[in-house]
Amino acid sequence: MKIAILGASGQLGSDLRECLNGHELTAFTREDFDVRDQPAALEHLTRIRPDVIVNTTAFHQVDLCESRADDAFAVNTVAVYGLAAIANRLGAKLVHISTDYVLSGDGSRPLSEDDAPCPVNVYAQSKLAGEYVVRNVADRHLLIRTSGLYGAAGGAGRGGNFVETMIRKAGNGEHARIVDDQIVSPTWTGDLAPQIASMLDNDLEGLFHASAEGSCSWYAFATTVASLCGLAASFTATTSRAYGSPAPRPAYSVLENARLERLGLNRMLDWRDGLARYLQVRHGIAPGAPHP
Ligand SMILES: NC(=O)c1ccc[n+]([C@@H]2O[C@H](COP(=O)([O-])OP(=O)(O)OC[C@H]3O[C@@H](n4cnc5c(N)ncnc54)[C@H](OP(=O)(O)O)[C@@H]3O)[C@@H](O)[C@H]2O)c1
After folding, report:
1. Which domains, and CATH codes, for the chain?
2. Are 205 and 213 in contact (CB under 8 A)?
3. pTM of the full predicted structure?
4. pLDDT tens per residue across span 265-275
5. How wide is the angle at C-alpha 287 spanned by C-alphas 171 and 254, nearest 5°?
6. Ligand 1: does its nearest atom lie under 6 Å from the Cβ of 272?
7. Is the pLDDT assigned to residue 177 strictly greater than 80?
């Protein structure tokens, strides 16, 4: 298969590059073209005529989206319309990544593809509008909602991912307040990339949830990171209200990979397994090993 990956130097994009290297891959980064520049996107994609376009780009700094709604919608919605139109023109399937944040539950059960969206911030609204575009414009599409991504490419030099930030803070003995009332499924891109590869191999189309199994609060995630790294962290649990982020977040956005499960194609593992393997690959910490 000829596959074009957009956002190829990002967390998910980098792991997809590795995972899909058995295919004829072309990796595009922001340096090649900005996805908001539709003529440039058309020119680059027409040159390679891919069977599949995987769009991992997003404006996903959730707090910043509140004050930069134009930019959020430009990347997360309008550019997606352009990519859908290009995919149609080239006869390609558009694979697009969306977010658990388009949903918000009450915590009584994980949310499936059949649950009604309920976006509580600008980021989520722009991503939901992007989903609408994909579903209604792209003739052939695979729309994947995932959650709480962290990956090696989000490490030092790119502003860090949540895990690396917690390791740094715990290692420096820094105190941190972390919200304990937002429940998510932290997902390692090293697990999500092979799941997406298998979805492509199986030629899936439509909307799918694909996040790590199980769930935790950000506080529980942070303390688990520190504990697996053998670090004594000075973290305290706080509430979203006390933390006071500019953007509201859903209190509970745990995804059930219901459609993958029904097809017998759900290969996502518990978030603790993903974290242990990330720490092993990235930091050489053997799972269950005693720490110095
Ligand atoms: N991160 C999460 O926790 C999370 C959770 C749920 C869903 N998602 C979704 O998953 C997808 C992948 O997330 P990720 O964590 O892998 O993101 P990421 O590491 O930030 O990667 C996104 C890549 O897209 C590039 N990009 C952004 N805007 C662009 C533009 N206008 N033109 C061209 N390239 C652009 C970025 O380049 P620069 O580095 O130059 O900006 C970056 O390389 C996104 O669609 C996101 O909405 C993420």
Report:
1. 2-159+186-214+255-269 (3.40.50.720)
2. no
3. 0.97
4. 999 999 999 99
5. 80
6. no
7. yes
